[in-house]
């Protein structure tokens, strides 16, 4: 393999190939994935922004690449995209901080 | 002149850019990833579904480019139009076009440019052409021309008087994206122009005065779903500015001229071509606009489409000029294709009337 990186942008295009080694599960995943992103109670635009935020909290470069492009295609502005990223960041930092309560509980219990 | 500062003030021609030369563009589109077999050429691709050579269907649209002069210098412009372009259709050529308009079976007349309104004989031509009984008479207006100078301020009334169907570019409902693509100040002027068109009845619900907008992506990505985009545009323009319009046409940027220059300069060319080829939709091929359209240039030459016109690819026919126009002979031609044609067949397809598949 010529590529010395863990992540290769070209791999995003090969995502569909994961079905080749496990067709049934792969097909089920893509069917589910496609269904999730269909217009429903949430618009496809709203779903794209959620996906972008999650892509960041999951730190998935492929997903960031895909949903940045998807957002542009849907006419989503960069301000909207950055706000979505901040929502993800806020939840991520909030999730870290809220565990601080656990730490406080433990410390309070153990300390005299 | 309103305060419209262009990002790049000059056309590729004025800048003596390599891509001002059509052959240089064609070379770029034929070499590299298409010559080394990484990607199939467009001809090879349509051969897969027995659609090569591409043949015309019934002629429905005459698209006349009355000149490349424009008051804007948009980043993506496939015409490479701008204030420095002097190519302008003469009244003599317009008379030849009128003769054809009167005798053709085409139901749509589509005037484009540059800014077609900047042709000194534009109004005369519209007055004469509107007498020809064409079903759909389109003028592609960039909107800001209406606000550019006092002499254009009455254009909404003029369009109304001649029952012109106005089709206008609007890359986004926000100032930032619009100005980035079309020049600083364009958004505000376009909004005012749209409000003025609405004021005379254009684009209003139940109005017969048609006002459609054209959306094309402001960068190296494909347009999203036309229906969703239309919904978003309508909501935003109505809520923010009280503007109404009828339909939105989503158009893919074709990799020629200034957009090709941008793709290469921004190192997006190969990825963009990959995206176009990946999104290739064989079902779009049968409805591409070159099949039912003849494009006529400012100097009266005939082309399969406005894009082939800019690549200087005249129709492959013994008839090549409006002065010798013969529909039957033209209908026997083979349409000239190159890799830019992937742009019209990506996704839902793309034409000057928006998507070509349902």
TrEMBL record, chain A:
The keyword Oxidoreductase applies. PANTHER family: ALKYL HYDROPEROXIDE REDUCTASE AHPD, BLR3452 PROTEIN. Gene3D superfamilies: AhpD-like. Pfam families: CMD. This is Arsenosugar biosynthesis-associated peroxidase-like protein. Keywords: Oxidoreductase, Peroxidase. It comes from the Bacteria. InterPro entries: AhpD-like, AhpD_core, AlkhydPrxdase/COmuclacdeCOase, CMD-like. GO terms for molecular function: peroxiredoxin activity. The keyword Oxidoreductase applies. It comes from Aequorivita flava.
TrEMBL record, chain B:
CDD domains: Radical_SAM (cd01335). Its cofactor is [4Fe-4S] cluster. The keyword S-adenosyl-L-methionine applies. Gene3D superfamilies: Aldolase class I. InterPro entries: Aldolase_TIM, ArsS-like_C, rSAM, rSAM_ArsS-like, rSAM_sf. Residues 54-297 form the Radical SAM core domain. Pfam families: DUF3641, Radical_SAM. SUPFAM superfamilies: Radical SAM enzymes. Signal peptide: none annotated. Keywords: Iron, Iron-sulfur, Metal-binding, S-adenosyl-L-methionine. The keyword S-adenosyl-L-methionine applies. This is Arsenosugar biosynthesis radical SAM protein ArsS. It comes from Aequorivita marisscotiae. The gene is arsS.
